[in-house]
Every structure is written in C-alpha cells, then in structure tokens.
Specification:
There is one protein chain. Helix 1 runs antiparallel to helix 2. The chain is elongated. It contains 6 helices and 6 strands; from the N terminus they run H-H-E-E-H-E-E-E-H-H-H-E. The protein folds into 3 domains: about 60 residues; about 80 residues; about 60 residues, DNA polymerase, domain 1. By secondary structure, the protein is of the alpha/beta class. Helix content is about 40%, strand content about 10%. The strands form 2 sheets. Strands 2-1-3-4 form a 4-stranded mixed sheet. It has a two-stranded parallel sheet with strand order 5-6. A hairpin with a 5-residue loop joins strand 1 and strand 2.
Length: about 220
C-alpha cells in the first residue's frame, strides 16, 4: 500500500466504501418481508458487477501511471534537466516540459517529432555553436549514459573523466556543485556557452565573467570538456 500513489489510494478507498454500502443494502433487503430470493440474487450480481468495474478502473490507473518515461534534456531550453513524460512522447513534448526553447535554439538541426524512449538524452543545439554544422538530428538524441557526477567530491582518490562535470553540457545544478560556483556564476557559464558555443578546453572557462585564476584552480580538477 505504501508504494501506491495518492490517486490509487483514494480510488481503492472509494471502492471499499461503495462495496460496504452495497453489502449493507443487500443484507437489509435480504431480511425484508417483501424481498424474494430472486431479488437477492440480482443484488448479488449487481454487487459483483460493481466490484469488477472498480477493479478494472484501479488496474487502468496503475497501468497509466506506470507507462511513463524519463529523459534528460539539455542545451538551448529554458530549464535543462530530467523530465517525466508519457510513453510515445516526442522531442517536442520534452522541450515543452523543460519550459520551451531559448531564442538561440537551432530547430533546423532537431526533429521535434522524434519519438522518445526511456533514459534518452536530448541535446538542443544552439545556432551559435559552429561545431553542429555537419551533424544530423540523430546526433542530438543519445542513449549514452555520458559523464557521471562524482557522489563524493571530497574523496582523496584520483579524479577521472567519469567523475568530472562536463562544462559543455552541465546543468545549472551541476555547475553549482563545483567548489566556489554559485547560482550567478553557474548562470553566466551557461549564458557564455549558449552565446559562444562549446568550450574548447577547461581553461576557456576563465573567459566567463567572475572566473579568474584562483577560482579556476579550485575547480579544474572537477571539470572536463
């Protein structure tokens, strides 16, 4: 029961209330002087039919809620990140769920009607990113898990690319997880990236206003391109 959603719990509660009412009604009519065995059988059939209808509706609710997919959308959208969609959703649905396109989004490079699958990563390209010129729309939909963010940034073990944050694809939240990078600086990094294209090297991040040599030294071991 703890694993059920609030809608499922509510519907099941209503089902039991209706079932109890029907049973009470059946019991009262069974003991009535005017009640015949035929009427009792009809009432029992109606009770059974009602139970079947409610159980079918509960099953439909559980099925509908389980038929969801989760995708990761980044790039030139208002709110990059993970979004939950219905099965058979399209790229356009993911864009809408992420707040819509930014002004610099290059929609000529993406297929908004592309049907998505669970776990996919969508990159909405920018018209300012010249590296996208020779890419087709398939290149912006990926099943590759990509870089994994370190769950223990303070670990003393050596840092590899699988535990670094890619500054070309990182979200606002991911950038804010870097040492000394607050919401304002993270937003500047994303704006710079959207306006100038991908960083060619991690040193290029120093071109972002507010990131000098000192701040770069604090984050260089945690970032990659």
């Amino acid at each position: 029961m703890d694993n059920l959603s609030s809608n499922q719990k509510t519907f099941i509660l209503v089902f039991f209330i209706i079932l109890i009412i029907l049973l009470v009604f059946t019991f009262l009519n069974f003991h009535s002087e005017d009640n015949s065995s035929d009427n009792f059988e009809d009432l029992m059939i109606n009770t059974s039919n009602t139970q079947d209808i409610i159980e079918n509706n509960i099953e439909n609710i559980v099925t509908a809620e389980s038929e969801k997919i989760i995708v990761y959308i980044i790039g030139s959208v208002q709110n990059p990140g993970i979004v939950e969609l219905k099965v058979d959703s399209r790229v356009s649905d993911a864009v809408e769920a992420s707040g819509g396109l930014l002004e610099d989004a290059d929609v000529s490079k993406i297929n908004l009607a592309y049907k998505l699958e669970d776990g996919q990563k969508i990159t909405i390209p920018s018209i300012n990113d010249k590296t996208n010129e020779n890419l087709s729309y398939e290149d912006f939909i990926s099943d590759d898990p990509g870089n994994i963010i370190s769950q223990n940034p303070s670990s003393n073990t050596s840092t590899s690319n699988t535990t670094k944050i890619n500054i070309n694809t990182a979200t606002q939240t991911q950038l804010e997880s870097l040492p000394g990078i607050g919401p304002s600086t993270a937003s500047k990094i994303i704006s710079y990236r959207n306006e100038n294209g991908k960083f060619k090297s991690i040193e290029d991040i120093k071109n972002v206003s507010g990131i000098g040599d000192s701040k770069f030294l604090n984050i260089k071991e945690n970032i990659c391109v």
